[in-house]
Amino acid sequence: MVDLEHPKQMLPTIFSCLYNNDVISEEGFNAWANCDDPTEKNGKGVACQSTHQFFTWMRENDGDEDD
Fold it and tell me: Which residues, at least 6 apart from 42, have a Cβ–Cβ distance to it below 8 Å?
């Protein structure tokens, strides 16, 4: 993503596909979001910003399943 200069909507689309097809769990996405490993910092700020709506949707979707 960094080398491609974060194409618009690419990362949120990938995240949605991985989540909807049960490739990566909510816990896996949250682990990535909360990871503060220095080797993961390159471009992470931009990635987190571009996936903010995905994480909001994922949390809201999780709440809907509990009802």
Answer: 2
Q: How far apart are CA 61 and CA 13, in angstroms?
A: 16
Alpha-helical runs (H) found in 8-51: 10-20, 26-34, 44-50
Q: How far apart are CA 37 and CA 10, in angstroms?
A: 23
Taking a C-beta distance cutoff of 8 angstroms, is the pair 2, 42 a contact?
A: yes
* pLDDT recorded at residue 44: 85
d(CA 47, CA 22): 21
Q: pLDDT per position in the chain (67 positions), as tens?
A: 666 666 778 899 999 999 999 999 999 999 999 998 888 787 788 888 899 999 999 989 876 655 4
